[in-house]
Structure formats: C-alpha cells, structure tokens
C-alpha cells in the first residue's frame, strides 16, 4: 500500500519532506504577514503625508481619490464632511451661504437648505432624530443651512458634524431685522414684507413708544441658537443658557466667526473644514459682487438714547457677552494662524495672502516606535531638511 512504510530509509525521506513542507508554510505565513504590515504602513504613511503637506484641504472627491483610499474607510469618511450652519436671521448669513452655493461645483459638495415648517427654530425630539439620521447617512460631502437652534448629534449616539456659525453685534442685528420687515432688502426687492404698512415708524420712535417690534427681549436669539433645543435656552435672561451657549461654542462648534469679519472667517474655514469644501472661499468672497448684495434697503441710524436704553437691559448685556466672547475667541485663533496680518475688518485684509503662504507646522513627530524601515527613514531625512 502507498502509506505503508517498510524501510527505515523511507521514513527518513518522509520526515525530510514533512520538515521542508513545514518550513515552506512558515515562510509563506511570514511573507503574507509582512505584506500586510507594509500595507498598513503605507496607509499610515498616506495619512501622515497628507497631514504633513497640508494638502488634505485640496482633495477632490472624485472617483480616483476614493479608489486610492478604498481600504481606508476612516480617511474616506473624514474627507466627506457634513457641515451644518444653523444660521441666525439677519447676521449676514445670506452672503455666507452664497459663497457655498458659488463654490459647490468647483469644490464638489452639495448645498441644502433646511426649511423648517412655520419658521420655527425648534424641532420635536423625533424630528431632531430624523434630521440627524438623515443628514448623517445621506449624500456627503454636504453643507446644510437653515434657521434652527443647535441640534446635538452626540446626544442621539451619532458622530458630531462640523457646525459653523456667524454672530453679529446684537443691537445691529435687531435694527437690521426691524427695517428688513418694513423695507425688505435688495436681494428680493419686490417682495412685500410683513410690516410694510408700518414703514414710517423708525426704530427710535418704536423704542420711545414701547412698541412690540423693538423690545429688548427680541435680542434673545443668538444665545438660544447656540444653546440649543432645550426649554431653558429660550428663557430671555437665563444665565444657564448663556453658559451652555459658550460651552457649545468651544465644544460643539468647529469654528464660530463674526459677521463683521466674514472674509477672515472664510480664510479660517478653508483650513479647518477637510476635503477642500471652502477652498478659495475668501478669495472668492473678496471678488464676488453677490456676497455684498444683500443689504436692508433702508435704515436710519439709531440714536444714542436708544443705544443707552438697550445697554441697560440684562438681555442686551448677556447677548453682548456672548458676542464679545465669540469675537475674542475668533480673533485669538486668527492671530495665532496668521501672525503677520493685522486683525482688522474685511476691508483691510491683505491682498497678497494666499493659502500657499501657510507656514509649516509648528510641531513635528519624533521618537517613533516601532522604528521606521530604511526606506522610510531616507524619506523622512529628505523631508525634514
Ligand atoms: C419654506 O417652505 C414654505 C412652504 O413650502 C414656503 O412657503 C417658504 O417660502 C419656504 N421658505 C424659504 C425661506 O424658502
Ligand atoms: C433623507 O431625506 C430625503 C428627503 O426626505 C430622502 O429622499 C432620503 O432618502 C433620506 N435619506 C436617508 C439616508 O435617510
Ligand atoms: C478663486 O476665486 C477667484 C474669484 O472668484 C477666481 O478669480 C480664481 O480663479 C479662483 N481660483 C481658483 C484656484 O479657483
Ligand atoms: C512674520 O513676521 C516676522 C517678524 O516680523 C518675520 O520674522 C517672519 O518671517 C514673518 N513671516 C512671514 C510668513 O511673513
């Protein structure tokens, strides 16, 4: 029979064959393992190279890019950001949103307006969940904008999106809204506005008469928009709401800017939103006529007496505290990012500033274990210079 061994010699031969087979199997496994490691190394290298060269901002979402990273779900997901702008009325949000609409085809992302029924800023719990689930899983990269208060994704077990926001000086915002309701703006000049009939009353006169459209409590809008969907966010004068709004600015929002410095804000967004969604945004904003288009058609300057009266109200003081907090945070971040540009208003923004002028990182990686292989070491040495 085939398996029967009669001679001692044959046993030796079989043993030898077995040992050789064993060695081959072990070698094969080692080669496969090595290949796997190299693949992982490669993926890490790709990620590090992208970070180091800073060009992750410029990745397009075309099919070649997604094929390139098809083994790396994490990188792919982060290149497809979900950006949410819960815009506060009359803060210059239309100019900002127009930049997104103008850039969407160059930078390959979708822009969607969220129209909340009845102009309400609040959603039911189940609608919040539906909105979160829908935006998380639907087409990306995407930029959603709408007039709703902050919705907390993490609360329902989802990853938080890139929240962006612009705030404006609270009294300026209210005055702008007041005249907007009466005269409209140059964006849709022929639309008849709600308070069209009442257009002869100036804001000052309204304050003097104690009218309902110019009450200090109407200033309470930027705090609740940043605070969120809770009942207490919407109680004018709530200290808790102000604290919560500040906490959200730092913990939940990617970056909050101020209307008065929109050009600078766009410059920063170019850097912090991945996937190149805002590539060339500040440059575009400077040259676009549309971005400056929407101005309330008619506006009377507000008297010192009116300003004084508002400054005495608790609601103005709190809204202003949030505005000042955001303005300070933004100026601080901007100065750190662009130390050689004086932080003035958009008009003084230096013309020569380009994204290519960004300095190399002020940090680097070292003491890396396990040690990089020879090939990688060579690369690193040339890269560091
Ligand atoms: C939101 O939808 C309503 C109803 O369809 C519509 O009348 C309204 O104009 C929309 N709002 C905006 C800002 O487009
Ligand atoms: C999100 O909502 C839209 C409109 O209601 C719908 O067409 C789409 O299928 C939804 N997507 C997901 C992933 O739920
Ligand atoms: C950036 O925007 C400006 C103004 O719209 C335009 O002239 C320029 O060609 C754009 N640059 C790039 C690289 O898209
Ligand atoms: C910024 O200014 C400092 C000091 O004036 C100078 O040394 C540095 O080279 C400048 N950096 C850039 C990028 O212009």
From TrEMBL:
Q: Which Gene3D superfamilies match?
A: P-loop containing nucleotide triphosphate hydrolases (3.40.50.300)
Give me the ranges of the annotated region Disordered.
Answer: 366-385
Subcellular locations according to the entry: Golgi apparatus membrane
User: Where is the chain membrane-spanning?
Assistant: 12-36
Against Pfam families, the record matches this protein to: Sulfotransfer_2
Biased composition, Basic residues: where in the chain? 376-385
**Domain of life, per the record?**
Eukaryota
Which UniProt keywords are present, listed alphabetically?
A: Disulfide bond, Glycoprotein, Golgi apparatus, Membrane, Signal-anchor, Transferase, Transmembrane, Transmembrane helix
- Identify the GO cellular component terms for this protein: Golgi membrane
Q: How does it sit in the membrane?
A: Single-pass type II membrane protein
- Tell me which InterPro entries the record gives: Heparan_SO4_2-O-STrfase (IPR007734), P-loop_NTPase (IPR027417), Sulfotransferase (IPR005331)
Please list the GO terms describing molecular function: heparan sulfate 2-sulfotransferase activity
Q: Which GO terms describe its biological process?
A: heparan sulfate proteoglycan biosynthetic process
PANTHER family noted in UniProt: HEPARAN SULFATE 2-O-SULFOTRANSFERASE (PTHR12129), HEPARAN SULFATE 2-O-SULFOTRANSFERASE 1 (PTHR12129:SF17)
Q: How does it assemble?
A: Homotrimer.
Q: Which family does it belong to?
A: Belongs to the sulfotransferase 3 family.
Protein's name according to its UniProt entry: Heparin sulfate O-sulfotransferase
Organism for this UniProt entry: Acyrthosiphon pisum (Pea aphid)
